[in-house]
Amino acid sequence: MERKSITISSWNIQGLRSTAFGLKTGTQMIVLQEEMVQLVVASSSTGSPQGCVLSPLLFSLLTHDCSARHPSCLIVKFADDTPVVGRIAYNNESDYRQEVEHLEGWCSANNLCINVKKTKEMIVDFRRGRHLPPPLHIGGTAVEVVSSLRYLGVNITNDLTWSTNTSYLVRKAHQRLYFLRRLRRAGLGSSVLTSFYRCVVESAMCTCITVWHGSCSAAEKKALQRVVKAAQRTVGCSLPTTTDTYTSRCRKRASCIMKDPTHPAHALFAPLPSGRRLQSIKSRTTRLRNSFFPETVRLLNSGGPL
């Protein structure tokens, strides 16, 4: 077994990125000393174990230079699900296309390959005289343009409505209600059934609820509530409504953002000079008014002094 030990100064941590990305296989171990970082590499058939405490640190170190170069673009890094978001103004797509080319070059330089077949492009355009832009190419292959995609468990459409996502979640929740009924037939008590509902049914139905629930239509909210009522009849006790779950999660998430000055959205929860209310977020469209940040600010202001 071949074993290599590389010692790198803490002021030259960039060498850790280029070295680790060049490894085809291997087990990485980082030993933190007072002013030195040591990378020990041994031949192995596996990489970093799933759930390893060093995985977030390694991911941050190895991808710290993979960032957007243009202010109108954004790269959201989440393991292998990494989207490039670009704001196109006056039909000028040069910054967006350069950002995609930059990401493609970064992946090639770090021995990573983009799967073009799994790569999708979605265009959100609410203009009346909109036109289809030229296709985006990666590695000489055109990227497929879709009207909806699923990202991190949420179905997003190009019209920014949530009917597709809600229908999917309701169908998924109904499938899991079958197991809840089977448990009741087995004679389990209400406490166990409630715990099963919260862990299996509600967790699936309320995935990222702070993102989409505020913009759902009345019919979609009724469809979600019908699932809760069906679960109540099975469990035999009252359960929190989807609106109550949405409200509590919005408050909890806003509290975490307000306590973290380094959060990118911390400035959106700016208090008024009196300190008892938050400054309202101006919104010209209903779509923006029902989104998370304006809705949460109104929710916190209606709950009394902060």
From TrEMBL:
Transmembrane segments: none annotated. One of its GO terms (molecular function) is methyltransferase activity. InterPro entries: AlkB_hom8_N, DNA/RNA_pol_sf, RT_dom. Residues 1-156 form the Reverse transcriptase domain. It comes from the Eukaryota. This is Putative RNA-directed DNA polymerase from transposon X-element. Pfam families: ALKBH8_N (PF09004), RVT_1 (PF00078). It comes from Collichthys lucidus. The keyword Transferase applies.
